[in-house]
Amino acid sequence: MANPLSDLSQLANFKMHDSSPPPNDRSPRESRFRRIASRARTLAIFYFLLLFAGTHIPSVGHSGPSFNDKWAHFGGYLVLTLCILAGWELTIGRLHARHYFAVWLAGVVYGAFDEWTQIPVGRTCDMNDWAADAMGVLSGIILYQLFRPMLFAVVSVSEEDLDKRD
After folding, report:
1. 114: alpha, beta or left, given left = phi > 0 and alpha = psi -120 to 50?
2. CA within 20 to 30 Å of 79's CA: 60, 86, 101, 144, which one?
């Protein structure tokens, strides 16, 4: 017959889960890489929110020289695209054509949504602004492709590191 006190002592020593911290098997390089990826994602989110807020502030009359806002639309979406692509590639690994297409499609659709939702706050919904947004997204994708080797040299990430994340 089993000893009930023995069973109770085993039950008292039983742990529902392992409370010891997981072993740190990440190298300092991997930890740095993860920090940079996290910061890139945070920057993309912050910039997106800033862009949204900036385009939905009610319009006030401009008393100074006329301002062609097409360059602001173009530049805003170009920078947003660069931030999203860098954050995404540093997080998941090498981006493929479908990823670039998804960023292009999301940028173009969001640009249209952004223009449309400016009407309730007294701003103008302008197809030329949307075209500048779309050109900014496309230019951001092209520039990212051209300068991504430089980005990865700066953050000390090799093509092999990206392939490991796939």
Report:
1. alpha
2. 60
Structural domain span for residue 95:
29-56+72-165
| 96 part of a folded domain | yes
How many independent structural domains does the chain possess?
1
Instruction: Convert the pLDDT of each residue in 93-125 to its tens digit.
Output: 889 999 999 999 999 999 999 999 988 888 888
Averaged over 124-145, what is the pLDDT? 95
In a domain, 12, yes or no: no
Provide the residue type at 40 as one letter.
A
